[in-house]
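3.2 Worked example (two chains)
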Amino acid sequence: MEPGCQSVSVAAHWEQSWNVPLSEATLWAWPLRDFGVSDWRMWPVSGIRCPEQRVELREYESMRELLPALPADREVVFIEPADQNFPVEDRVLLPDFDHPENAAYIFGSNHFNPTVAHRTNEPVVTIPTVENSGVIWSHQCLVTVLYDRLVKA
């Protein structure tokens, strides 16, 4: 696996785009650029247009619309909070996860876990914390996952 993330897609649900859209867009765009990710997708459509945007943003009305639009060569990986109220028997903790060469990371949010409605047999990866209450913001998970991918490469 290459150290950069040219063969990576990142998709997520907006957390607060209605409240602080440019700030949230920056929290995603800068790390994506720094880790070499150029395929960035979000849902729902927010209309965010950031002049400082470092990575092209594609927006979709729903996750149902976004998933089939991902590049066909990417292996979908759901990144979900380690919330004990949302058990998935076959979760993989991030330290134990082997990243696929071509990955499409789908990040849930503090308010929405896409795994519930959209997962078939794709892996679900969790970032363990001391409390495991599932309150790590998805843009924080993004940096953690991309860094983990980089160091494991």
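3.2.1 Second chain
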Amino acid sequence: MNNFTNLAHIAILASALGWSGIASAFDFGVGTGCSAIGGVDATSLSNGDTFIGRIGSTAVSGFNKNGKPADNSDTDAFTNSVEECINDALVGYCTTVLGDDTNFISVTPGATSGKANNKQLFTVVFENIEGCGISQCSDHVDNDSDTFTDYPKDPQCRDYDDNVEDGDEDESA
């Protein structure tokens, strides 16, 4: 068994046993270059809840193999890719993850894999769940039936907390 299969079994067993703080689903199929536990309801998060993801090692370390920094528009401890990976995996969003998320989440790098060690596990701990919710642009549903689901894939969604997926109104959750 590889590391990802072992981790999946641990997460499923933990959920079945009712252990708190470990997500109930384990899906490494979310997003381009990003895979994380999917289906975690942002409104049911508690401080201390944890989930596991996998992404390109540049996103976790912050630097590619030539030393060039990864995008980090809010200049906090985490790259844009890791922050987007976390929010894309949630049913809902945490606005604090997209801004300066210091004191809201912690990310711990894990083992690397791949031919060039270019994939890396990471563990996210929600330290402060303030700013987490669900909107039409983050609920994993194609609310306006245009074949696009949620931000950033639906062009009618400006961000995760946009609450009207059809773009006709300017509302927030």
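3.3 Remarks
The CA atoms of residues 97 and 172 lie 17 Å apart.
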